Amino acid sequence: MNIGNGIKQARQHFELSQVELSEMTGIAQTSISQIESGAKEPSKKTIARICAALEIPEMALYVLGMEGTDVPSSRRGVYDELYPAIKDFAKQVIGKRKSMLLEKKG
Fold first, then answer.
1. What pTM value is reported for the model?
2. Which of the two ends of the chain, N or C, has the fewest CB atoms closer than 10 A to its terminal CB?
3. Which CATH number belongs to the domain containing residue 84 in this structure?
4. What are the tens digits of pLDDT across the range 71-103?
């Protein structure tokens, strides 16, 4: 599981810089950078703050952060078959939230 990669994908989907996400969450930009690079593991509280700021479910970050190595080899075939659709669904959820967030700003 690379939750930092999930956070990075979500942030980029919203077209936000690390600085902008930092301002939205109150989490230092350096911490966001360390989390996204895998140098630091985010706490549950940090994940919750990011999801609250982006108005997305935590599940979306976990799905985006999944890796093939998270799945036992006996289940890898199922993972390879289902994961692309699940990941696309998570991106759709994020996309809908992005639209809603932009409407609020406008």
1. 0.81
2. C
3. 1.10.260.40
4. 888 988 888 888 888 888 888 878 777 776 666
